[in-house]
Automatic annotation (TrEMBL):
Highest taxon of source: Bacteria
Protein's name according to its UniProt entry: Diguanylate cyclase (GGDEF) domain-containing protein
Native source species: Undibacterium terreum
Domain (EAL) ranges: 1-254
Length: 254
């Protein structure tokens, strides 16, 4: 299709960009790092959401070179901010299903770390709960290899994808990101409050950190803090920022 053809050209034409959404610790308000979010600046269509082009990239296999560009660009960018004197920040990159099945992934990750000089723990990889459970045996091996390399591993959109407690116990996971569906009606919805509190307690007992996604209000932040959640990401703290806007954000928030 025409869109696939123009996506194929997008990388070489410099039409892809990363936005960065901050993640803030609830313990001390410190900026821990950013989630890198891919955007396509199409010459005619304008800004295209990943929701619309990631499926095409997956289907066509273009996600492998694009994903590799995302990992390398995110690592270089975080390294540049560290060199500029900001704290040692983490950067989180979203993986797609096709990437987790690609043998190139580990090499891409190790190359990006080597070229940028980032510490492995500064790179966080996010894999959605449903993607993880879809192919749990292969993913278990992949996560074990990534963990052995020192990479920080998160389960994205947690709570929407049927993971069994048995796997949660065995998976080499550092962090859960609670899906924003559970955050949007707290405080107030007693069921969601119970679910969020229970996820936090369970994760902590397993030695796993917890981030809440999609926090938009001061009341949500207060609830999450009281529930013992480690960190938040969401419009309340900041929308995803262009790389140019990040240094100013960091100056104001640390
Ligand atoms: O940033 P936004 O809300 O538009 O993102 C929409 C979806 O696209 C989210 O599910 C997010 O995880 C996904 N996404 C954003 N950037 C990337 C990326 O670099 N790779 C993959 N695979 N998914 C991404
Ligand atoms: O699926 P994933 O969790 O990776 O999706 C990340 C996407 O969620 C980002 O693209 C971002 O645009 C969106 N997002 C981030 N914070 C908020 C928020 O507070 N509210 C809503 N509705 N969306 C958010
Ligand atoms: Mn994510
Ligand atoms: Na995601």
């Amino acid at each position: 299709a025409a869109i696939e053809l123009s996506l194929r050209k997008a990388l070489e034409r410099n039409e892809l960009a990363l936005y960065y959404q901050p993640k803030v610790s609830l313990k001390d308000q410190k900026v821990m790092g950013f989630e890198a979010l891919l955007r396509w600046n199409h010459p005619e269509m304008g800004l295209v959401s990943p929701v619309d082009f990631i499926p095409i990239a997956e289907e066509s296999g273009l996600i492998v070179p694009i994903g590799s560009w995302v990992i390398e660009t995110a690592c270089r960018q975080i390294r540049a901010w560290s060199d500029a004197g900001f704290n040692e920040l983490k950067v989180a990159v979203n993986l797609s299903a096709r990437q987790t099945k690609s043998i190139a992934l580990i090499d891409d990750v190790l190359n990006a770390l080597r070229k940028s000089g980032l510490h492995p723990w500064q790179l966080e990889l996010e894999i959605t709960e449903s993607m993880l459970m879809d192919n749990i045996h292969d993913n278990m091996d992949l996560l074990e290899n990534l963990q052995a390399a020192g990479i920080f591993l998160s389960i994205d959109d947690f709570g929407t994808g049927y993971s069994s407690m048995a796997y949660l116990k065995r998976l080499p996971i550092d962090q859960l990101k609670i899906d924003r569906a559970f955050i949007k009606d707290i405080p107030g919805d007693g069921d969601d409050e119970a679910i969020v509190s229970a996820i936090v307690d369970m994760a902590h007992r397993l030695g796993i950190a917890v981030v809440a996604e999609g926090a938009e209000t001061c009341e949500q932040i207060a609830f999450l803090e009281a529930a013992g959640c480690d960190a938040v990401q969401g419009f309340y703290v900041s929308h995803p920022l262009t790389a140019d806007d990040v240094p100013q954000f960091l100056e104001r928030h640390n």
